[in-house]
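Re: your question from the hallway

Yes, I did run it. Sequences:
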Amino acid sequence: MLIVKKFGGSSVADKEKIYRVAERCIEDYRQGHDVVVVLSAMGKTTDQLIALAKNINPNPSKRELDMLLATGEQTSVALMSMAMGALGVPSVSLNAFQVAMHTSSAYGNSRFKRIDSQRIRHELDSRKIVIITGFQGVNKYEDVTTLGRGGSDTTAVALAAALKADVCEIFTDVEGIYTADPRVVPNARKLKEITYDEMLELATLGAKVLHNRSVELAKKYGVQLVVRSSLNTAEGTIVKEEVDVESMLISGVAADKNTACIAVIGVKDIPGTAFKIFELLGKKNLNVDNIIQSIGREGTKDISFTIARDDVRDVVSLLEENKNRITAQRIEVDETVAKVSVVGAGMLSNPGVAAKMFEALYSAGINIRMIATSEIRITVLLDEADAEKAMRVVHDQFMED
Amino acid sequence: MLIVKKFGGSSVADKEKIYRVAERCIEDYRQGHDVVVVLSAMGKTTDQLIALAKNINPNPSKRELDMLLATGEQTSVALMSMAMGALGVPSVSLNAFQVAMHTSSAYGNSRFKRIDSQRIRHELDSRKIVIITGFQGVNKYEDVTTLGRGGSDTTAVALAAALKADVCEIFTDVEGIYTADPRVVPNARKLKEITYDEMLELATLGAKVLHNRSVELAKKYGVQLVVRSSLNTAEGTIVKEEVDVESMLISGVAADKNTACIAVIGVKDIPGTAFKIFELLGKKNLNVDNIIQSIGREGTKDISFTIARDDVRDVVSLLEENKNRITAQRIEVDETVAKVSVVGAGMLSNPGVAAKMFEALYSAGINIRMIATSEIRITVLLDEADAEKAMRVVHDQFMED
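Structure:
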């Protein structure tokens, strides 16, 4: 088998942990498997490097920041190879230049375009464990790029796809994917399997176990993912195209507090205003979800939508600047909201899911401010203060069956 | 003009120093020059990275160590570019992959084979200051190599040669090349000019201002070097092919305490024994200098030579292992010796230099244990305890004229 194993920064934070990961990889190697390991930067290294950069220049060039950040993973992979050497197993570390991990040009948020597998195959053929820097790539100018937070997951999946790996294991500090965050919902259950689509909805909604783009990529290339603990050998959760038809109605409940609600009040009720607003935001790469349009007074309407809380300042200033163009009377912001969602492929054939969710929230006295649905997801926007209670009551409603 | 400027680790050790270097480079840039900056790793970074590696594996693979160490310079160059950005000057950092600094394969001690200048020229043409990682290269396997301690000097000279730079400035914590170490010889004088050959002899002998290989390379490609202070704008010392014929008889006095004397006692007086000894050492890359052969008792002879003190253990164990083969009765080691040398192109036409040196030492009551000479250098081996006194009396003897 060819196995790609990805370990995050906390799994390689110190010498002991590095050795634990090395031993875990060597187990597979000794069983005759080809092993490719993808590592993040050690512990809080990336944060420290960002702080170092901001100390020099509060607004550093993105190109130079990527150049700096890339040293973090290069450090991890070299040390890991040294640990494996001490354990008597041949290995080799490779950075993005050496593998030739081609990405798009965008610094800080690039995407893989093409990965050469030749060097890796050559090293595997000479029976080495191959240790590769996660999170980074090289663009067409031969400049270092990074994939954004959580990008090492994407590196692992992209490598698994390029190498046609049998499995891609994502090691994390939880034992797998749960029906809800166990810290919030005590009786949350670990899932044995979940579909790519369900995982995507959960990842987007803040379940934070897998980087979204990595799941998209896994779906696109049919890479079977296993999410499991780096601390024990418990079986994890398998993420794949289709799961057992006997599976639960919903696979998870997720909350996302990184959200804010923007209302553009009193725009003229003429064609093109919504287009103008979202074109403005799109041009600045500001992501919008859950748009609602309601009728206002005297031939006007109100357009509301949710955005990531980090983007509030950018969005508001952009809208204020263009207030006349979009014919808005005023812009309102509410940052005390949260999204709670249920996700499940099962709801495709079970129209009662939404009603069941609303019933649970109503019984708990929680007010719903917006509703948005996809084929396999129902999301409600509610007061941030109600988010955790909402998760628990919704989870119990579905899981008690 | 195209100017290559090299700054060592202590010159970029913190934010303030990074800005000072940035400003210094920008001065030249604003005068319309093309500026290429070569940087070492910040402060003690390289030592810290070696300690990090040894903590994981006391005997790390050299390939992986180079992979790790290379992160040091990449950090410096990215931060320098950010500092220049904050000062409003366009710049770009490049690592060894990006420049394509091809070296030999040897990890930890590689040599430049070819440097592509295309990317650098392209960046200079778009009026950027180009900031390049010193000390590192890429070998034919596309693996990271390092040049060994002081390698950033060599990087600067190699780049100056490849780019046909007008001048290569090496910034250091002294104001230039002195007739002797000013901490030892208080009336040492700064030289205005020195030849490559003199500098080479001084560098080899422990003057420690310039990395030896960098001077060899400068001589080979006719790169004019300027050694000057990173702390002030004092004129430094120019290192070039020929200097003013009116120059001093000698250009410097140097001491080297990193030396030990090995005596191979009682080897058979037959052809080939010396060859066998130095072949053994040569194969292990153990450098030997100042060989003396003397007649011993009863058809035997003694062969003595000096080596770097770091190599004593390796050399002695190698000789002991091969005692029979080299027909030695015993091996003696003396680690309490030092070399003191005078260097000067002037001595080529002045046969009295050696006598003058010996006279100074004799007057001071200092015993000479070995003598070795080249065309422009006279070296004596003496007790380590006498080294500094010897430097002073020899320096005074020549400089008082």
